[in-house]
């Protein structure tokens, strides 16, 4: 039944000529984004939803989770007054924030 829905939705087909390298690149990028080549090309052509690699989404979620845990530990260590540990935690939080920002800019 899913196949029938697709034929109703997409009623036209276009042909695009590519070199072997271009085809491999598009196929690889679509796989990285976790979508079909057709969907990847439609998004590129029509400027639809941004193409975000699933791995980047997962990494950003995990980094935010780790940042939250570090922030909690930061508050606990701050109460104890251990300056060396505070400096290390602050550096780790900055590194996480920088990585999230860099990944977000790539998208």
Can you describe this structure?
The chain is mostly helical. The chain has 2 domains: 15-51, no CATH class; 54-106. The protein has 5 helices and no strands. It has helices at 2-9, 20-33, 37-46, 54-80, 83-106. Helix 2 (20-33) crosses helix 3 and helix 4 runs antiparallel to helix 5 (83-106).
Describe the structure concisely for a colleague.
The protein contains five helices and no strands. The chain has 107 residues and is mainly alpha-helical.
Query: Approximately how much helix is present in the residues?
Result: over 70%
Poorly predicted sequence stretches spanning 5 or more consecutive residues: none
Per DSSP, what share of the residues sits in E-state strands of 2 or more residues?
Answer: under 5%
Total strand count, please? 0
Radius of gyration: 22 Å
What is the ordering of alpha helices and beta strands? Answer: HHHHH
What is the average per-residue confidence, as pLDDT, rounded to a whole number?
79
Q: What kind of sheet is the major sheet?
A: none
SSE class: mainly alpha
Number of separate structural domains = 2
What is the distance, rounded to the nearest whole angstrom, between the alpha carbons of the first and last residues?
34 Å
Count, helices: 5
Give the overall shape. Answer: elongated
């Amino acid at each position: 039944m899913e196949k029938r829905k697709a034929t109703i939705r997409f009623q036209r087909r276009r042909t695009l000529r590519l070199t072997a390298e271009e085809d491999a690149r598009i196929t690889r990028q679509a796989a990285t984004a976790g979508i079909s080549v057709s969907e990847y090309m439609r998004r590129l052509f029509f400027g639809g939803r941004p193409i975000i690699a699933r791995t980047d989404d997962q990494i950003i979620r995990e980094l935010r989770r780790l940042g939250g845990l570090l922030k909690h530990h930061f508050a606990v260590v701050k109460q104890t007054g251990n300056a060396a540990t505070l400096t290390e935690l602050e550096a780790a939080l900055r590194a996480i924030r920088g990585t999230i920002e860099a990944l977000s800019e790539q998208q």
